[in-house]
């Protein structure tokens, strides 16, 4: 069903685990290492996507909130709850709108069953007086920044380890997980058309071998269109919109364990999150990317943007020279034609390609 598919569709290891758990024979080829791309370059959150409510993505948020609970239950050693503080900025979204959004965020997870007491539930949102709460101590409270704030729940995750544990569990369920193994060619068997013949190449030895399968799943992230071009070299595809997200790490800006979500004047948001005890993680950006996804790195403009966004709220100011680490990743989003990268849908699209619906082996993109 759609909810179960959503949980596994985010990366190839999740798909392999899901399919192997249903009894399918699974072969996964990964051109690099596990979580070597976007899967290890995130903001390290399992969240419902509060800001997507502004784009009326209610179904997407509901599914993400449901998954947040499922993942927290399944992997409590990798995922833990956080409280996020949302200060009210007098010149941006009104306080009543923020509170309404948080109310909806708290109640969209319709899958919660009160008859199952073992099901965890995160604390609901609340209103804060930042002039008295510890969360207000590092913040500017002035004519622009109200002393009113809100607090809500989401979860943190060790993103790369989550991918690795998915791969391990898939392997234990019988899947063959092959890293440093690239898909270099694929075609349907000429005689029957019901079988895929996929040629994979070991990146170290350059040895090639052929894998046969009844179903081929194209879960190549930023390279989804490249895989399709391998199948049909003459066909130009533009299914994917690449959007860069970058982060900076600075010496910690406050001592408590809460996180912040800040509104910017460009209608975007950024997070400030405690990171490895002595640091604060700040991100992320949203900008279209047209280069090689393997070579993505933060730009000077992005660093300046994140510093300025944090400085608009924190008393302690930061500058690019304070940054101790940066990282960037590329989101592979469905190309829905949105005018701005931040407005592009984060929902997924499944496309099944079959030459003949009943006779040919399917390709699921």
Shape: elongated
Percent of residues in β-strands: 25-35%
> For the report, how would you describe the main beta sheet?
10 strands, mixed
Number of helices: 7
Which ranges are low-confidence, i.e. pLDDT below 50, for 5 or more consecutive residues?
1-9
Q: In summary, what is this structure?
A:
This protein is of the alpha+beta class. It has seven helices and 18 strands.
Give a written overview of the molecule.
It is elongated and about 75 Å long. Helix 2 runs parallel beside helix 5. The chain has seven helices and 18 strands. Helices cover 22% and strands 28% of the residues. Strands 2, 3, 4, 5, 11, 12, 13, 14, 15 and 16 form a ten-stranded mixed beta sheet that branches. Strands 7-8-9 form a three-stranded antiparallel beta sheet. The protein has a three-stranded mixed beta sheet with strand order 10-18-17, with no helix packed on it. The chain has 365 residues and is of the alpha+beta class. Mean pLDDT is 90; it is low at 1-9. A hairpin with a 7-residue loop joins strand 7 and strand 8 (196-202). The chain starts with a helix and ends with a strand.
């Amino acid at each position: 069903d759609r909810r179960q598919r959503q949980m596994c569709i985010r990366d190839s290891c999740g798909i392999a685990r899901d399919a192997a758990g249903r009894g399918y024979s699974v072969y996964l080829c990964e051109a690099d290492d596990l979580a070597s791309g976007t899967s290890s370059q995130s903001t390290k959150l399992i969240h419902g996507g509060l800001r997507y409510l502004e784009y009326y993505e209610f179904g997407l948020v509901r599914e993400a909130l449901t998954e947040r609970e499922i993942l927290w239950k399944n992997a409590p050693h990798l995922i833990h709850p956080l409280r996020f503080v949302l200060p009210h900025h007098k010149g941006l979204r009104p306080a009543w709108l923020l509170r309404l959004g948080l109310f909806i965020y708290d109640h969209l997870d319709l899958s919660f069953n009160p008859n199952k007491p073992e099901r965890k539930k995160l604390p609901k949102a609340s209103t804060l007086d930042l002039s008295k709460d510890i969360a207000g101590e590092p913040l500017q409270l002035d004519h622009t920044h109200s002393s009113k704030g809100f607090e809500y729940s989401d979860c943190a995750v060790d993103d790369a380890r989550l991918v690795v544990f998915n791969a391990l569990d898939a392997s234990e369920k019988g899947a063959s997980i092959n890293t440093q193994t690239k898909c270099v060619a694929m075609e349907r068997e000429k005689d029957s058309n019901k079988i895929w013949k996929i040629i994979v190449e070991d990146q170290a030895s350059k040895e090639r071998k052929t894998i046969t399968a009844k179903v081929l799943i194209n879960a190549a992230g930023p390279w989804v269109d490249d895989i399709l071009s391998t199948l049909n070299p003459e066909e130009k595809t533009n299914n994917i919109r690449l959007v860069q997200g970058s982060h900076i790490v600075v010496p910690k800006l406050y001592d408590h364990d809460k996180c912040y979500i800040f509104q910017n004047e460009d209608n975007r948001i950024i997070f400030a999150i405690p990171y490895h005890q002595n640091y604060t993680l700040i991100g992320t950006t949203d900008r279209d990317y047209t280069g090689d996804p393997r070579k993505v790195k933060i730009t000077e403009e992005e660093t300046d943007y994140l510093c300025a966004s944090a400085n608009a709220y924190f008393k302690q100011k930061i500058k690019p020279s304070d940054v101790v680490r940066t990282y960037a990743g590329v989101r592979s989003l469905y190309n829905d034609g949105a005018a701005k990268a931040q407005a592009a849908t984060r929902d997924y699209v499944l496309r099944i390609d079959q030459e003949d619906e009943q006779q040919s082996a399917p390709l699921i993109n």
